[in-house]
Write a structure and sequence with these properties.
Length: 252
């Protein structure tokens, strides 16, 4: 795991191992080292110390994991390369559920203009400050339009989001319905995406009833199927939905 404050030698060694089979590993290593040099290290160290006790007892899936800035910046750097953001003209990017701002951090490094939206959270606010990122406080609510953000975007991303996780009901997790997802997609297509444009979603797994009666974690198969019917390229294995649209008329 890439730690928050490794020595340069151990950092580069770990990075080489993580990218061993990536054909663009040298370029990605160069970019990540440059990004890490731009992090406010002393501020991040103070933030990490403030949360040291919570870090020791927190669930590994909790938000405290995002204090590992190197690891999550690497993940977003790989996403930026997947989306072709490392080259070309500057784009306007909307990142929904931006968390600590790791993806806007990478996008700005490549010269793009980014708006990252999420709920108010002091930990994420602190991480974003270490990255020089300004978060915009917007709550994504089912069957409610997103506010006017002052512009439309060439690329909209929403990765590993939890806004679709409602609550527990009768001991089981409850998630957004297909109708609630369709409402959000229609809102993004109609009011926030500039054409030609790209909408990229990376789902979290949800607790769903398995074939043998027990609950298991799956990507939302009905949502993936609905997106495919609307014209998205999907990955059932990775939980990816990607719309690449020349015009709104291409949406089925």
């Amino acid at each position: 795991m890439l730690g928050g404050h490794p020595t340069k030698t151990s950092f580069e060694r770990t990075l080489k191992t993580a990218l061993r089979w990536n054909p663009r590993r040298r370029e990605i290593m160069r970019d990540l080292l440059a990004l890490m040099a731009a992090v406010d290290g002393p501020r991040l160290e103070i933030l990490s110390q403030e949360h040291a006790n919570a870090l020791r007892t927190a669930d590994p899936a909790s938000g405290y994991k995002y204090l590992d800035v190197a690891l999550y910046t690497l993940q977003k750097l790989l996403l930026a390369h997947e989306l072709g953001l490392e080259g070309g003209l500057p784009r306007r990017v909307l990142d929904i559920g931006t968390g600590g701002g790791h993806f806007p951090f990478v996008c700005q490094f490549f010269g793009h203009q980014v708006v990252g939206i999420d709920i108010d959270n002091e930990l994420y606010k602190g991480i974003a400050a270490c990255l020089g990122i300004q978060r915009t406080i917007v709550r994504v609510t089912p069957l409610a339009l997103l506010p006017n953000l002052g512009q439309k975007f060439d690329l909209i991303t929403a990765c590993d989001v939890t806004f679709n996780d409602k609550d527990d009901r009768d001991g089981r997790r409850v998630y957004w319905t297909l109708a609630e997802w369709a409402f959000l997609l229609d809102d993004l297509f109609a009011h926030h995406l500039e054409y030609p444009g790209t909408l990229y979603l990376k789902l979290n797994k949800e607790w769903q009833r398995g074939f043998f009666g027990s609950d298991r974690l799956f990507f939302n198969r009905e949502l993936l199927a609905m997106a495919a019917r609307k014209g998205a390229v999907i990955s059932r294995r990775r939980g990816i939905i990607k719309f690449s649209l020349a015009s709104r008329h291409e949406i089925r």
